[in-house]
Every structure is written in structure tokens, then in C-alpha cells.
Amino acid sequence: MAASKCNVTRLTEALSRQLLDSVDSVLFDCDGVIWRGDQAIPGASEVINSLKKNGKRVFFVTNNSTKTRQMYADKLGKLGFDASADEVFGTAYCSAVYLKNVCKLDGKVYLIGSNAMRQELEDVGIRPVGVGPDPISGGQKDWANVPLDNEVRAVLVGFDEHFSYMKLNRALQYLCYPDCQFVGTNTDTRLPLEGGKAVPGTGCLLKAVETAAQRQAQVVGKPSSFMFECVASQFGLDPERCLMVGDRLDTDIMLGSNCGLKTLLTLTGVSTVAEAEANQKSECPQRQKMVPDYYIESIADILPALQA
């Protein structure tokens, strides 16, 4: 996004109508935008359902790799959203698509990740190994010569509650082979929780593997343009007619900037207007990409424009 365009503008009802008239498709991040934890943001389901009734296409784009598309669709349904699994693009699904269609993977994948990731890989015909605990045994010589599956052709790193030294070591041993492909779901370092708490995110695990292997992963999730391309290729989207709505400047808004989408920051999650304005004043091109076209307190605030 060029510096001259970097105006952080509050989205009024009149501007909401103009913005919605200028787009055919709206991409929403999930946590902090349409829900927090297991609670829907008040008014969010009405917004999503009204957008669809008004002929807009709606998609859900999340860096969370712990759920399948169907698991997300089930959660959306329970919270009152009109949504189907094929509208959900999480990193578990998108990384499986990436390995199959971009990497043209011919072989197994060593997976540091969840059962949801295993399921999405299997659904596209890729055989994962490594899910679950990998307890440590022996000493350093044993670790350096740990048994490997000679059919593994890629290492994929997502969120894994069983991440351990042995998993890190096993990934390193596979990645010593230069032909072994290396993919990560996302680089989010912290997962914010209610009350200002946080836990380590996938980015911490991925950075550990990158450091051990002395290699950089191909990252699938936001702000990588592949996340949008995954949606656009399946549904024929025109980037200029798309709006990205998110609560994080470094993932959601940067994705929009990277792909030429209109961007809307909602303040029900992580990032603040002050951070956006600081990026706006920065001379750094990367920070300029983290400036939304518009901001809004909550996505519920666009409901009047939809009902007008």
C-alpha cells in the first residue's frame, strides 16, 4: 500500500454503504473478529447472515491449524452463523492444498501438528507421520541416528501441544536432506487469551525448527498471499472486489495489503488504532502494509448499513 493511501479512517454508516457496494466478497478472520473463544461477538452472526442475504460471498480465513474445515463450520453453525465447510480456509486445510498443488508432494510428510492437520492431509491423499507424543530415549548419538521413514519428502510444522526435543530433532534429521520440503502453517508467536493472558503460538515452534535445520520454511498462513490465492482460485475472486476484515495488523491487514484487497480493522481483538497510526507515520514499507483502509469498533457496527 502506498504511503499516500495510508489514511486510517473510521468507518461511518455512509462509508459502510459505499464500501459494501464496492465489493462482492468479504473475508473474515475468526477469533477476535466474529467470536472470542466460544462466544460470538454480539451482532456478528447478523452481519454475516445479512451480507449473504445481500448477495455477498463470505469466507472465513484463519491461521488456526487445530481445526478442520468441518469443525469450523460446526462451530459457526452453533454460534448462529450461516456457513458451510467450503467457505472456511484454515491453515490445516491450506497447508494440505499447498503440499499437494504447489509442492507436488510425492511421498509422506513428517507432521509436527494436530489431528485436524492429519485429517486434512489425508483428505487430499497425503500420508502424515509423527502426530502425538514422541518421548525421549537414549543419548545424543541415538538422537542423531534416530530412525527415519524413507518415504518422507516434507516437514510440515503447525500448532502441536506435544512439541518436544525429540520432534525438533526428528524434523532436523529429515531437513538435513536438501530435497525434503519445509512448510509452516503460520508465524504467530503468541495466542492472546481473555484477561490479557497469552500462550506461545505456532511461530515459536516453527522458529525452533528453522533454527535447528538452518533453513527457512515456506509459510502458508496470513500474511502469505497463498492464503488468499487458495480462496481466489477456488471461487474466482477479483482482489479489487474483496474486503479483508481482521483484528491483527501483522496478519489480516498485511494479507489484504499484499493481495490488493480493501482492508477493515476491527477493534474487538488484538491490534489498536494507535498501532495503525504509528505504522502510518513510519517510513518502513513493511509497516506501511499494516495500515488498514478503515477501522471499526466491532463488525456489528456495519449492521445499520446492511439493513438500510
Structure description:
- With 308 residues, the chain is an alpha/beta fold.
- It has helices at residues 13-21, 44-53, 69-78, 91-102, 115-123, 140-144, 165-175, 202-213, 225-235, 249-259, 273-281, 285-288, 303-307; strands at 9-10, 25-28, 35-36, 39-40, 57-62, 88-90, 108-112, 128-129, 152-157, 181-184, 190-192, 198-200, 218-219, 242-246, 262-266, 294-296.
- Strands 1-16-15-14-2-5-6 form a seven-stranded parallel sheet, with helices on both faces. The protein has a five-stranded parallel sheet with strand order 8-7-9-10-13.
- Helix 4 (91-102) packs parallel to helix 5.
- It is elongated and about 70 Å long.
- The two termini are 31 Å apart.
- Mean pLDDT is 95; it is low at 1-5.
What can be said about this structure in brief?
The protein has 308 residues and is α/β, with parallel strands linked by helices.
What characteristics describe this protein?
308 residues, 13 helices, alpha/beta, seven-stranded parallel beta sheet, five-stranded parallel beta sheet
